[in-house]
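Hypothesis: this fold can be encoded by more than one sequence.
Test: take the C-alpha cells below, design a sequence, compare later.
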C-alpha cells in the first residue's frame, strides 16, 4: 500500500470515529432519552459528515498525486527504459504514462483540456533522446496557457531548445564527451536547473542512459519530492540535484512549433 493509500485509509477511519461520536450523542444526553426521530436525524447527519470528510480528503489527495508522462526517443526502438521507469513508478503508487515522442502535441492538448476542467496535480515530463527534445517542446507549448511544468527531466537530448520560464524544476542528463549538452534557460526563468554530466560512467551510453538504475532512482526521488513538498520545506542540500545550477549563455533558436 502506498503512502497516499495509507493516508486515505486513515482519513476514512477518522471520519468513522467522528460519525460514531455524533451517533453516541444521539443515544444519550445527561441520562435523558432522546426521541427515536431525533436519533435517526443525528445518525443520518453523522453518516453524511463522514462521507463528506472522506470525499474532501480524497479529492485533495488526488490533486496532489503527480501526473507523469514519459516520452520515448526516435521510433521508440532504443527507449525501452522509459517503460521500465514507468513500471517502477507505478510500483511506488505513482501513476505514469509512456508514449512515443510523436504523441507530444496530442498530450499538450489533453493537458490543457484537463487543466481547464480543474485538474491541479503536479505535472512531470520525462523524455529520452528525441523524446527529451519534445518534452521541452511540450513545456513551451503549455506556457501561453499558464500551465506550469513542475518537473522536466531530459535524458541525452540533442540540439535542444532552452527551457521555458514555466518550468519549475529541470534536470538534464548528458554525456561529455558523448551525446547531449547542458541545457540553457530562456529569459525570465526563475526555477531550478541541474545539468548532470554522466560522461565518467562508462556503463552509460546514449542507448542505455534511459535504462540506468541510478538515474531511475534519482528521477523517482525527484517525483516523490513533489508530494512531500506540500508537507513542509525541503532541504535542497540533502540531494545535489536540488541545487540550482547557473544559467548557461543564451543561444538563439528558431521559433518552436506549437501544438496543432
Amino acid at each position: 500500500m502506498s503512502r497516499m493509500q495509507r493516508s486515505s485509509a486513515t482519513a476514512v477511519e477518522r471520519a468513522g470515529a467522528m460519525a460514531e461520536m455524533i451517533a453516541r450523542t444521539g443515544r444519550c444526553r445527561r441520562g435523558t432519552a432522546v426521541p427515536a426521530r431525533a436519533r435517526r436525524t443525528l445518525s443520518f447527519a453523522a453518516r453524511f459528515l463522514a462521507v463528506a470528510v472522506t470525499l474532501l480528503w480524497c479529492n485533495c489527495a488526488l490533486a496532489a498525486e503527480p501526473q507523469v508522462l514519459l516520452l520515448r526517443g526516435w521510433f521508440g526502438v532504443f527507449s525501452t527504459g522509459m517503460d521500465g521507469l514507468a513500471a517502477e513508478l507505478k510500483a511506488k503508487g505513482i501513476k505514469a504514462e509512456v508514449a512515443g515522442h510523436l504523441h507530444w502535441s496530442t498530450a499538450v492538448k489533453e493537458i490543457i483540456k484537463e487543466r481547464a476542467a480543474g485538474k491541479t496535480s503536479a505535472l512531470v515530463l520525462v523524455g529520452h533522446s528525441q523524446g527529451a527534445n519534445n518534452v521541452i517542446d511540450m513545456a513551451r507549448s503549455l506556457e501561453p496557457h499558464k500551465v506550469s511544468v513542475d518537473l522536466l527531466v531530459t535524458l541525452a537530448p540533442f540540439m535542444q531548445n532552452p527551457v521555458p520560464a514555466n518550468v519549475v524544476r529541470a534536470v538534464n542528463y548528458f554525456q561529455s564527451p558523448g551525446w547531449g549538452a547542458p541545457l540553457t534557460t530562456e529569459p525570465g526563468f526563475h526555477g531550478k536547473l541541474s545539468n548532470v554530466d554522466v560522461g565518467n560512467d562508462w556503463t552509460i551510453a546514449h542507448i542505455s542512459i534511459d535504462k540506468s538504475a541510478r538515474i531511475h532512482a534519482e528521477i523517482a526521488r525527484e517525483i516523490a519530492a513533489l508530494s512531500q513538498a506540500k508537507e513542509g520545506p525541503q532541504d535542497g542540500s540533502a540531494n545535489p540535484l536540488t541545487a540550482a545550477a547557473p544559467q548557461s549563455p543564451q543561444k538563439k533558436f528558431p521559433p518552436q512549433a506549437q501544438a496543432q
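Residues 25-30, 49-63, 232-260 have pLDDT under 50 and may be disordered. The chain has two domains: 3-61, 65-242.
Hypothesis status: open.
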